[in-house]
Amino acid sequence: MTHTTKNSAKLTRRSVVKAATGAALVSCATAPSIAHATQTASVFVHGVASGDPLPDGIMLWTRVTPTPDAIPGSGRGGVTVVDWSIATDHQFTQIVASGSVNTGPEVDHTVKADVRGLAPATRYWFRFRAQGVESPVGQTCTTPALNTMVDRLRLGVVSCANWEAGYFSPYRHLEARGDLDAVLFLGDYIYEYASGEYAARDHVVRPHQPAHEIVTLGDYRLRHGTYKTDPDLQRLHASLPAIAIWDDHEFANNATAEGAENHQTTSEGVWSARMAAAKKAYFEWMPVRQSVAGTTYRWLRYGRLADIALLDLRSFRSAEGDWGPSGDVDEPDRTITGRTQMEWLKAGLTQSDAAWRLVGNSVMMSPVQFLSLPAYLMRPLAKLLGLPQEGLAVNTDQWDGYTADRHELLGHLKKFGIMNTVFLTGDIHSAWASDVPFEAATYPFSDSVATEFVVTSVTSDNIDDILKVAPNTVSVVGTTALRAANRHLKWIDLDSHGFGVLDVSTDRAQMDYYVLSDRTDPNATATWARSYRTLNGTQKLERVKTPPS
Fold first, then answer.
1. 509 vs 247: CA distance, rounded Å
2. Which 3 state secondary structure label does DSSP give 12?
3. Inter-CA distances, 429 with 200, 434, 467, Å
4. Per-position b or e across 448-469, b if 16+ CB within 10 A of its CB
5. Contact, 402 vs 365, CB < 8 A?
6. Could you give the CA distance from residue 398 to residue 155 in angstroms, rounded to a whole number?
7. Half-sphere exposure of 56 toward its Cβ, with a 13 Å CA cutoff?
8. Can you say whether residue 67 is alpha, beta or left, with left for phi > 0 and alpha for psi between -120 and 50 degrees?
9. Any alpha helices (H) in 330-455, and if so which ranges?
10. How many Å apart are CA 305 and CA 354, to the nearest integer?
11. In angstroms, what is the C-alpha Rg of the chain?
């Protein structure tokens, strides 16, 4: 059973060459939004998507439902031939590549076409056809040529979307902007819990399928399929290329190479089998490329403006450690990246000749001491993080739990004078803006070697949800205490849901934070809340009063 196109792809050289004319001047962010299909045929109920853009290629994705009973994870339905085509116009009069894929239950009837031979910095439209039915039309874009000078890059940034906690309105707002080049998904794209187990304010807005905690391959497939029916997510995927990494909930809470907080071997089987099932479903259902090692860490590049490192911080990490006098978070043999990935990351940062080095990083890099918080905030925060509720000094699921790796990476930036490194992070269901000091204890008298932007959750619980109080009730107290104990933290929002927009030019990288009016309202509005930027060469953040035009 073939899952991706090989020799079945057909490129029209004349069309590709024609599309390449003036390609360096084309920007994905300036193209008008396509007119989406108002009715999705039953064959393509999960929509279309694209991802992992390259100067000459893009990954196309869809899933077909050949028979009504061939629901995700069912194993039903036979082999189906799916045709795909990609063109430089919405009417498909200039088709530049096409091909066919055989898909079936071995890959849950998903389809991935890794199209190459395209022109750089070019807008394309794509579609699929199966059983005489055409899919909705999607649009995507390749990245600029590797050595092209690029004026601007603008990315939507999201993480932590719990289906049961609300509607994915942030995706709708990102799609509607019409000025983005791609969307960066920083993990927790799905959640593994049983229905009601992780619901906001003890209220399930829309129930998970399956209703039980997902453990098997069929379970993970059905959960992915459920999320892919969200209309806002479908529109976003059909409009912009996705750049995605996983975090823990694509597997189970606080996942490591050795196990997870939300995995019980006695009732749920061997951890390695569960993780393998989760990975297989992820690669089937997401428009991302799988490395030879079966992981997601990889580099992408937007000309000479930005290199993007995308990390896998779950597959190779040591078991979660303990903090305290007898704890082991500082042990030198503990790792969050694994040795191979660490060397790959350091080498890439050293060799990068781009103006900016962006790191897609699923858990927070900046050190944070939490003991300054009052008890009534400490307890819900510990619950949110899946940590002991009697108190915590650090979140050992973050880089704070793997201090040797962090010291090695930040020391590498410092030693080799690597400038303009920006960590882009999700996971913690709150928004943060921070300098990243090499020695936090002596900051600001010691150097900041990078900066970090953390985006809040799309829908997943934050502290006000757990306490069942109105938004902004606890943020002022929590922010004041945390910033007093952590002088490198510039801003914290513990209460809101929303998304970020990263705007990068040669002279600065800026994150604009947007908050949602009500995650339980499918028509929720989004409002700009705050912006921070780091200027070229400074390694420090400063507040900006307005988002860029």
1. 24
2. coil
3. 12, 16, 14
4. bbbbbbbbbbbbbbbbbbbbee
5. no
6. 24
7. 6
8. beta
9. 339-351, 375-385, 403-415
10. 5
11. 22
Q: In what order do the strands lie in the sheet with 48-51?
A: 110-115, 58-63, 48-51, 242-244, 182-185, 152-158, 498-505, 508-516, 526-535, 541-544
Q: In whole angstroms, what is the distance from residue 483 CA to residue 210 CA?
A: 41
Given the structure tokens 């077909």, which residue do they identify?
64
Amino acid identity of 206? R
Distances 187 to 250, 274, 457, 458, 460 between C-alpha atoms, Å: 8, 18, 10, 11, 12
Tokens of residue 111, six digits? 């389809």
Angle between helices 217-227 and 271-285 (to 10 degrees): 40
- pLDDT truncated to tens, each residue of the chain (549 aa)? 445 443 345 554 333 333 333 334 345 665 544 444 434 568 999 999 999 999 999 999 999 999 999 999 999 999 999 999 999 999 999 999 999 999 999 999 999 999 999 999 999 999 999 999 999 999 999 999 999 999 999 999 999 999 999 999 999 999 999 999 999 999 999 999 999 998 655 689 999 999 999 999 999 999 999 999 999 999 999 999 999 999 999 999 999 999 999 999 999 999 999 999 999 999 999 999 988 778 889 999 999 999 999 999 999 999 987 655 445 778 889 999 999 999 999 999 999 999 999 999 999 999 998 766 666 676 676 666 655 544 456 788 999 999 999 999 999 999 999 999 999 999 999 999 999 999 988 888 889 999 999 999 999 998 888 877 777 777 777 788 888 889 999 999 999 999 999 999 999 999 999 999 999 999 999 999 999 999 999 999 999 999 998
CA 153 to each of CA 144, 239, 352, 458: distance values in angstroms, whole numbers, following the listed order: 10, 16, 17, 22
Token pair for 189: 């794209």
Residue in the structure block whose two tokens are 């853009």:
53
Transcribe 281-332 into DSSP letters: HHHHHSS-PPPTTSS--EEEEETTTEEEEE---SSSPPPP---STT--TT-T
Q: Which two tokens stand for residue 491?
A: 């801003």
Number of H helices, E strands in the chain: 11, 23
Peptide bond into 444 cis (omega under 30): yes
